[in-house]
Prior knowledge:
Structural class: alpha/beta
Number of domains: 2
Largest sheet: 9 strands, mixed
CATH topology of the largest domain: Spore Coat Polysaccharide Biosynthesis Protein SpsA, Chain A
CATH architecture of the largest domain: Alpha-Beta Complex
Radius of gyration: 19 Å
Number of strands: 13
CATH superfamily of the largest domain: Spore Coat Polysaccharide Biosynthesis Protein SpsA, Chain A
Strand content: 15-25%
CATH class of the largest domain: Alpha Beta
Order of helices and strands: EHEHEHEEHEEEEEEEHHEHHH
Distance between the termini: 33 Å
Amino acid sequence: MDLAIVILNWNGKNWLQKFLPNVLQHSGEHAVYVIDNASTDDSVSFLQANFPAVHIIINEVNFGFAGGYNHGLQKIGANIFCLLNSDVEVTENWLQPILALFAENPNVAAVQPKILDYNRRNFFEFAGGAGGYLDNLGFPYCRGRIFENIEKDNGQYDDVREIFWASGCCFFIRSQDFRNQNGFDERFFAHQEEIDLCWRLKNTGRQIFYTSRSAVYHVGGGTLNKQSPQKTFLNMRNNLSMLLKNLPFETLFWLIPLRLVLDSFAAVYLGFKYGFSHFTAVLRAHGSWYGQIPGTLQRRGKSQVQQYYQEKWLVFKSFL
C-alpha cells in the first residue's frame, strides 16, 4: 500500500539525528517526510545536508501538533499516513502488520502499534500503551497505563483488537478518512486531538485498531514535559471541548457539571503536587473552554454514538 511516514518537527534536530536513521533503515521504499513547524534551530539545514532522501515540508509558523500536520499533509499524496513522533525508535518489520490490517479490513480507519518505553524497554509507555479508551467520566486511559501507573509488558496485551483511540505518537490513518474529517481540530494545538479525531471517525461507523504485532519505543516529553503547566492547560481544555463536541446531549447534561466540579478538585491536587502554576493552568483551561463553546457546538457531528455509555466502549470487560 502507498504509505507516507510523516514526522512533525519543531526544534528537534537532536531527536532527528538520533532516530531518523533508524526510521529510514526499517521503512523500506516507503517515503519519509519531515514537516518542519517553523523551527528556530538548524533542523532544516541539518536535514538537507545529512538526509537527502527525506522530503522536507516547511510550515512558515508553528501551528502546533494539530495544525502542523493539517497543513503539511495537504502536500502529501499517499493512501496511508503514518504520523510519527520524532522521539520514536521503530523496529524491524514494524510496518508490515499495520499495512496488513488495513488491507484485510476496509472499515479500519486508524491503527496504532504496541508503544513501549524507550528507557525502560520492557514497560509500556505513558502515551498510548496498548490502545486507548475513555472512562465513564470522559478521561482517557490506555491498556498498560492507568493514571500514573505503568505496567510491565508481560505479553498480557499481545492481541489485535478494536480500541477507542490510537496514540498520536505513532498514528496510522487512511488519508481519505483524515481528509473526510477535515483532519485534526486545530484549536486543540496539541494533546488529545488524536482522541477527538478517532471519536469523530467512530461516530461515522469507522473502526480504530491496535496490533501487538508491531512495536515501537517512545521517549516521551520530547517537546513538552509531562509536568509542564502548559500540558495541564491543553489536556484540561481539550478534553472538555472533545466531550462537548462528540457526546449526545442527554449525556452532557449530567457529565459536564460533574466534570467542572471534579476539575476543581484536580486543580487543588495539581497545585499541591506540582506547584501553583498548575492550579492556574486548570483555571485558564476552563476560561479558554468557555470561549470555545460556540465554535465547538458548530463542530458537533450530525451523528453521535447515542448508546456510548451503555455499550462496549466504556466498560472494563474490554480487558477480559
